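The freezer alarm interrupted the setup, so I double-checked each line after restarting. Inputs confirmed:
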Amino acid sequence: MKLYSYFRSSAAYRVRIVLSLKGLEVDYRYIHMLKDGGQQHAADYHAVNPMKLVPALEIEGGILTQSLAICEYLDETHPDPALLPGSAADRAYVRAIAAAIACEIHPLNNLRVLAYLSSELGLDKPTRDVWYRHWIAEGLTGVEALVARSGKAGDYCFGDTPTLADAFLVPQLANARRFACDLAAYPTLTAIEQRAILSPAFAAAAPEAQGDVEH
Amino acid sequence: MKLYSYFRSSAAYRVRIVLSLKGLEVDYRYIHMLKDGGQQHAADYHAVNPMKLVPALEIEGGILTQSLAICEYLDETHPDPALLPGSAADRAYVRAIAAAIACEIHPLNNLRVLAYLSSELGLDKPTRDVWYRHWIAEGLTGVEALVARSGKAGDYCFGDTPTLADAFLVPQLANARRFACDLAAYPTLTAIEQRAILSPAFAAAAPEAQGDVEH
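Predicted 3D structure, all chains:
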């Protein structure tokens, strides 16, 4: 398998965590989202992912897009360790956390949106930072409450082993830290994150461990 | 089961389509997202969904949030008719379409974002409409290409029967039409949509068929 990735993309980071948790080795093709006007906009990358986003996962016979879909695929085709719980209701809880991050937080703060705020709306960096932190706070407040009220969390969002929820949570919190968001109001989430990043599987997937990292 | 819904919410519309395709009856609790400063902001609704969004689905023993997670739950617990294909790669294709809509298009154009553009950034309606149509065009261009290149589409996004992909596509195109977006560049998607909305299951889930509809 070949993963189209960018070290700083939190959506690619999610997939890297899942690959890492499952002990899967893949080839990497790095798509630099800032160089050359954004390599995700190149015509040859459109053939890979017409959404012009990373990640994309090349498998035998096709290319998969969207981190949620890719992670579900990897969990179905490489079921050990399972990253979704056994009961349908518990799976819905785990998927809801992943989706809350993937659908309500990250889309508002990714590169293309920040670029639009700057180039089309003419917003300066302080105003863009307010926007960024607003959606982080809105979203994480909700996710913190979802996890805290569930009674399902342990060392991780569900019990004491990682699930898809953690694979989405850790990259989102990394983004929030990069933008200096105040995370004091999310003690459950940050406690899970701080445990997770100590594990070798999460560490190997981190931006700073990638072949295309820039410091 | 009880569905917290708003007739105009395209995320609730997705869940209504899935319920309808599976022939499931639920009780409705309508959350008017514009009245009373937005009923999704009321404290009693926070107890239902801390994300302050619809839909939410109350089941025995809990409340499920996030349309993607709810639709997967309904498909797992009521497998007939199946709304995901049989092979992992095909399921990834269907989920990618649903996720592309749920993660890349709708989050940028929903009520709370349009409200922020207006109240916090002071943008007028024409500028907000440009924003709206920009993300519709970006997203649908990608989804059209994903579906067209797949070789998997028939009457619906995957083959000749509805899947989760169609349950996400139809509400998104309804939104786009409401904002007068030009859809000429998406012939595959609109052909699927126009077939789907003729079917009784999709028609019953449409905004105009809801108990809380306003004209």
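Quick read of the result. Residues 88-201 of chain A form a domain with the Glutathione S-transferase Yfyf (Class Pi); Chain A, domain 2 fold (CATH 1.20.1050.10).
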